[in-house]
Amino acid sequence: QSVADYDLWLSYSEITDQKLSDEYRAHTRSIAFLGNSETLTVAQEELHLGLRNMLGEASFQMDADPNRATLIVGTKDQLHATIKDRLIQDLEQVGREGFVIRTMEQKGKNVLVISANTDMGILYGVFRLLALMGQHQELDKISLVDAPQIDLRMLNHWDNLDRTVERGYAGASIWNWQKLPEYIDQRYIDYARANASIGINAVSLTNVNANALILTTMYLEKVQALAEVFRPYGIKVYLTARFSAPIEIGGLDTADPLNQNVQQWWNKKATEIYALIPDFGGFLVKANSEGQPGPQNYDRNHVDGANMMAKALKPYDGNVIWRAFVYSEHDADDRAKQAYSEFIPYDGQFMDNVLVQTKNGAIDFQPREPFHPMFGAMPKTSQIIEFQITQEYLGFSTHLVFLPKLFEEVLDSDTYRKGEGSTVAKAMDGSLYDKKMTGMVGVANIGSDLNWTGHPFAQANWYGFGRLAWNPYLDAETIADEWLRLTYSNEDAFVNPMKQLLIDSREAVVNYMNPLGLHHIFDTNHHYGPGPWVSELGRPEWNPTYYHNADENGIGFDRTIEGSNAVAQYAEPLQSRWNKPKTTPEKYLLWFHHLPWDYVLENGDTLWDGIALKYQEGVDQVGKMISTWEKMKPYVSKERHSEVQMLLNIQLKEANWWRDACLLYFQTFSNRDLPDGVEKPT
Ligand code: GCW
Question: Could you tell me which residue ranges the Glycosyl hydrolase family 67 catalytic domain spans (predicted)?
């Protein structure tokens, strides 16, 4: 019952159910693992590890004759014609990274086959088979054909070279730059295994608030060592490139993207990197945002900057990932509008190895935001989505919040860019517009804590991100179900209530932090607790008061035609719908509207009462999470149980804090009593 936190969802717990383990043993008794490569070696090792832990060492043999094997693992080219012919149609569907898992008949006997077009497909197939077994799924009649729907499935680390992590809440950076390149921490390997098991195939190692030193030879050799660890697992390395690097480490006196010496410098840098890391992914760039240098420092624009770097990488098939997270103090009528205004005119001007990376919402990783209006609005650009897995505005690694629910909500949102059904998922996976490359990015929540993510349940957010990047149409419940089974237990009495707990946890945090479309009312800089009163910071859009605008007349941000007109950045019918409070979903109400305290909500409550009751509901939901967890003692180790219990107790205390702080503050404007049912602050 006890689970080593370090093992994540790869704990491969022993299968004690006799019938099931017999069934699995029958399938895996004699294994023919065909072919030879670094990737196939790690796949074979993983299969071995998984089977040994789940079924016991003595139960299988690894190098069986394919004619007599019960499990055959091999790429299309390795398979015997009689088996290959029966799989060929499916293999044609699964591309470079997909796989087929099927039971079929061979000489009157059942044989289980994992096949793919490439070695990477095999590795993904092996991980999937082990996951299915870990979830106690039937294999007898399995026929699974699966392939990723998104090309680039990427983690962004915001890790600094001194091992601090921006917005990292799980200890120091796992990259030990001081000991690299010689010392290869086992963690790097396990990190690669975990990522490959959920299909992550790219990682940017360093903070987007970048340090140019990472591009010096000394650091590149360290990066090379990591890239070599990751390569068998199909993971490409990217680095953040500081736009002013030619000045800082190159001795030039400018970083002007149209200056030939600057272009030359980046060309040479690319050549140097690819000599060390032939499959280097490319650069990730945050430019002209929050004080980072960029092309605008030289009166050039994003296209000039991105294309200059793209030219340097092009000969090696590298990409530039250019972030669209920009906002400036000069045009601060509505921060939410700025990225769209700045980027949309550039559609069609970026080189084809430039990807524009846009956060899921137009402000900044809030507990809830409407989808970013740029999605679907740049048909000629490879636009990729950035989610935050680390919980900057979601209670750090202290609060339990299951993020796949948030990711799913965004991916399922309809942009209407090509009529009804133009969901964000479709804009991302290339089905809406033909894209050279598609991608989904998550800001990692990983650190050197024993359990990787700080909160043991934050592992589910890493897991869930990877699963959704593989298939953006998966639903959050399926992901919760998988993760709970793989990490903790297959007992229904555990899985069912805990699944509900995970699913509800997202709405709980919205309710006790930012209900009804409120946003960015966090205390300054750290973004942890409430701070709706903060109003004296240097720039208007740094102040929470800017976002909620509470006064005697009401509360909310007017983004209608009469207000900032941010609604105009959305396609019809959203534009018209969200322009009126009555046709705006209440979850976004105060995002788009400034409304009187007595505005009447759908359920008949006044806005003031509604806000207060939502805060209370959030607190009550956390209370319910605690009582559910209380009943889970039989299914998890004592240590795990008490760890999560302590964290949930903090979460409850802080949900109360949020409710009291926000309601007492807003009450100074509303001048109304709290409704029945809302606990009075003491
Ligand atoms: O969410 C904000 C964070 C910054 C971060 C920035 C960004 C890396 O508060 O810490 O900087 O976004 O995404 O660039």
Answer: 134-452
